[in-house]
Design goal:
The structure holds two protein chains of two kinds. Chain A is an alpha/beta fold. Chain A contains 13 helices and 14 strands. Chain A has two domains: about 240 residues, Peroxisomal Thiolase, Chain A, domain 1; about 150 residues, Peroxisomal Thiolase, Chain A, domain 1. A ten-stranded mixed sheet of chain A has the order 5-4-6-7-1-8-14-13-9-10, with helices on both faces. In chain A, helix 10 crosses helix 11. Chain B has a single domain, classed as Non-ribosomal Peptide Synthetase Peptidyl Carrier Protein, Chain A (Orthogonal Bundle). In chain B, helix 1 crosses helix 3. Classes of the chains: A alpha/beta, B mainly alpha.
Chain lengths: ~400, ~80
């Protein structure tokens, strides 16, 4: 029997807020979290702007004795998970811990740890590395650390699909709860890859914006790397009802596809198949959707192709829905992006406000959908999609709706 | 043909199938099938070969060089050899 799947808690650490509440209030005000990097040297970077989690002090969240094995990417995950679990009010006793899944998206794992260690070896001629180097940088560390810090003993793993990691992770968790495999899951995404070596890799790909992120705008110059984490607690409706939980929204569909084409260039056909898959899975008609939280990276290719994909999947309804990009404010948080954006999508439904696409200079004829330029819009949203399209041609889309 | 021209042509030709490597100065990169990923790799090879920095952002609509001859001219300018 298929269970309905509801969201009962969330936690966020982002470039524009250290908790879910401040994240939303800054999204709705159109606050930009993009600025010159402060956590790494920028003299040798051609593009110096990133969307960092600002004023972050790990010792405010962790005892110094537990910080040693925790890369920034795992710290973010644990902080967001703690907030989400506190928010949902679950205690995971009476065997629930064993039946709760922990499924977290992460693109590249502990890049600061890797970068720091390579520097020590190759530049400083260090003779040895810290003994926890490997468990600190392993890409599954965020799921492992959440499970340990929060006492979750059910199925736990990390999903890696670059920019779609969190959406794939949440989609899998959704399917597990819907199928009855588990009654509850802690799911989302985390990323913290603003390390010097990683940024030089991004620079070499020639897709970074030198100024800021301007999705769907004319004169957009590319993406801006971000970081952060968002974690949601999802439950079967029966499980949430039995404990009178406050329901924040419902996940109703999940679609996935692979382009099997170009490594980097996006494909409208592949994107559209994931969108259509999420709609079909949800039972919603295209005309039921008022809002699409776009992948919207701010690259020339993504935004144009995503616009074409929406037109292909929605037909004439594409001209009636709105589609904005949170990345204009929080940058591209890669493996965390889908989770940060799904939380924003659910908040849009609850608050009756769609966050804007900021830094917008004017229309690009190839991106002619309503992207809510520069100013948030008060509007009723009952059902929405959250899009994630990864390098490597891996696409994932979630459909959510107002809980009723 | 100058050394710069020969080196540039060799780098561009490396991206093309063996049958299409007989390049003319007027050949357009897009007609040759050089897409943005190939262009990024080609630019990397040129930067490494000539120890120069080529400003290129794949999001900018217009390339400063569209033909084989224009690539050679751009590289000559950057290495200070006209």
């Amino acid at each position: 029997m298929a269970h309905r799947v509801v969201v009962t808690g969330w936690g966020v650490l982002s470039a524009i807020g250290h908790n879910a509440q401040s994240y939303w209030s800054n999204l709705a005000r159109g606050i930009c979290g993009i600025a010159p990097a402060t956590t790494i040297p920028t003299e040798q970077l051609a593009q110096k702007v990133v969307a960092e989690v600002k004023d972050y002090d790990p010792t405010r969240h962790f005892d110094e004795r537990v910080l040693s094995p925790l890369d920034r990417v795992a710290q973010f995950a644990v902080i967001a998970a703690r907030e989400a679990i506190a928010h949902c009010g679950l205690s995971f006793d009476g065997g629930l811990a064993e039946r709760t899944a922990t499924i977290i998206g992460c693109g590249v794992g502990g890049q600061s740890t890797q970068d720091e260690n390579y520097k020590r070896l190759y530049r400083d001629n260090a003779k040895r590395l810290h003994p926890l180097t490997i468990p600190k940088l392993m890409v599954n560390a965020p799921a492992s650390q959440i499970s340990m810090h929060c006492g979750l003993r059910g199925p736990a793993f990390v999903v890696a699909s670059a920019c779609a990691s969190a959406t794939h992770a949440i989609g899998l968790a959704f399917q597990m709860v819907r199928s009855g495999a588990v009654p509850c899951a802690v799911t989302g995404g985390t990323e913290a890859c603003i390390a010097f070596g990683t940024m030089k890799g991004w620079e070499a790909l020639r897709v970074l914006a030198p100024d800021t992120c301007r999705p769907f705008s004319r004169d957009r110059r590319g993406l801006v790397i971000g970081e952060g984490a968002a974690v949601l607690v999802i439950e079967s409706l029966e499980h949430a009802r039995a404990r009178s939980a406050n329901v924040l929204g419902e996940i109703v569909g999940f679609g996935m596809s692979a382009d099997a084409g170009d490594l980097l260039a996006p494909d409208a056909g592949g994107m559209a198949r994931a969108i259509e898959g999420a709609l079909a899975d949800s039972g919603l008609a295209p005309s039921d959707i008022q809002y699409v939280n776009a992948h919207g990276t701010g690259t020339a290719a993504n935004d144009e192709t995503e616009t074409a994909a929406i037109k292909r999947a929605f037909g004439t309804h594409a001209g009636k829905l709105v589609m904005s990009s949170n990345k204009s404010m929080i940058g591209h948080a890669l493996g965390a992006a889908g989770a940060l954006e799904l939380v924003a999508t659910l908040m849009s439904i609850n608050e009756g406000v769609v966050p804007p696409t900021i830094n917008y200079l004017g229309p690009d004829p190839a991106c002619d959908l309503d992207c809510v330029p520069n100013q948030a819009r008060a509007m009723r949203v009952d059902a929405a999609l959250s899009n994630s399209f990864a390098f490597g041609g891996l696409n994932a889309v979630l459909a959510v709706r107002r809980f009723a | 043909m100058s050394d710069v021209a020969a080196d540039v042509i060799a780098i561009i030709a490396k991206k093309l199938p063996p049958s299409g490597r007989d390049l003319k100065m007027t050949d357009r990169l897009d007609d040759l099938g050089i897409d943005s990923l190939m262009a990024v790799e080609m630019i990397f090879d040129l930067e490494e070969k000539f120890d120069i920095q080529i400003p290129y952002n794949s999001n900018d609509a217009k390339l400063e060089f569209e033909t084989v001859g224009e690539v050679i001219d751009a590289i000559r300018n950057l290495v200070g050899q006209s």
